[in-house]
């Protein structure tokens, strides 16, 4: 069965929309349980207006994806849940917001405990240290706010040029006259 990569940095995992889990699981999880929390924790980052998402599971193990270098997410808010299995090492680390980096970044290391999740701003620089043994699986939900990203693309810091897409795309929306907002895929770089 053909499948897409979870994102541009991970090679092993699965997109949950390809398994049909958006409508029955991820969307209700975001709308009913996560958005009330994110609206309190991240009001200035679109936490109260998260209207789309991208959800996937990633796998880290020896001889596959071992770690994940410093990056920021294509999201206003991210949920990262450690699903297990058994692994050693592989902690997460967090640094500055990409909008306000310091000349010498300082990172805080966080142990990612199986069955626990972390909420963080998508624009916060972070990564995953190498696993030393075993397999680590993570559920990642990038939550997006079209009210925020329609003003400024979080990936290129420019006003978005919108391209049609199916599903949630990258969380941008366009409102033709008299119509409901239409989801669009990405900010195309010109």
Structural category:
mainly beta
Largest sheet: 6 strands, antiparallel
Mean of residue pLDDT?
82
Number of distinct helices: 2
Provide the helix percentage: 10-25%
User: Termini distance?
Assistant: 34 Å
Low confidence ranges: 176-190
Radius of gyration: 17 Å
Number of strands: 13
Order of helices and strands: EHEEEEEEEEEHEEE
Fraction of residues in β-strands: 35-45%
Describe this structure in words.
The structure is a single chain. With 190 residues, the chain is mainly beta. Helix content is 13%, strand content 38%. The protein contains two helices and 13 strands; from the N terminus they run βαβββββββββαβββ. Strands 1, 2, 4, 5, 8 and 10 form a six-stranded antiparallel sheet that branches. It is globular, with a radius of gyration of 17 Å. The N and C termini lie far apart (34 Å).
Key features of this structure:
190 residues; mainly beta; four-stranded antiparallel beta sheet; 13 strands; globular; disordered C terminus; iron
Topology readout:
Blueprint: E1 13-15, H1 22-41, E2 52-61, E3 68-71, E4 77-84, E5 87-89, E6 92-97, E7 108-110, E8 117-121, E9 124-128, E10 131-144, H2 146-149, E11 162-164, E12 172-174, E13 182-187
Organism: Chelydra serpentina
InterPro entries: Oxoglu/Fe-dep_dioxygenase_dom (IPR005123), Pro_4_hyd_alph (IPR006620)
Domain Fe2OG dioxygenase: 51-145
């Amino acid at each position: 069965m053909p499948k897409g990569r979870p994102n541009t940095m991970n090679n092993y995992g699965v997109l949950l929309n390809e398994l049909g889990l958006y409508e029955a699981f991820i969307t209700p999880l975001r709308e009913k349980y996560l958005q009330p929390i994110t609206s309190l924790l991240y009001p200035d980052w679109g936490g109260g207006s998260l209207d789309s998402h991208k959800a996937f599971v990633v796998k880290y193990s020896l001889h596959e994806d071992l770690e994940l270098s410093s990056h920021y997410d294509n999201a206003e808010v991210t949920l990262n849940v450690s699903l297990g299995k058994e692994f050693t090492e592989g902690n997460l680390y967090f640094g500055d917001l990409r909008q306000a980096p310091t000349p010498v970044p300082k990172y805080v290391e966080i142990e990612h405990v199986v069955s626990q999740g972390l909420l963080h701003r998508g624009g916060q620089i972070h990564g995953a240290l190498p696993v030393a043994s075993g397999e680590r699986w993570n559920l990642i939900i990038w939550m997006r706010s079209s009210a925020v990203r329609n003003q400024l693309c979080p990936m290129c810091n420019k006003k978005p040029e919108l391209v049609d897409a199916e599903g949630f795309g990258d969380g941008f929306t366009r409102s033709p006259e008299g119509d409901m907002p239409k989801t669009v895929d990405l900010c195309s770089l010109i």
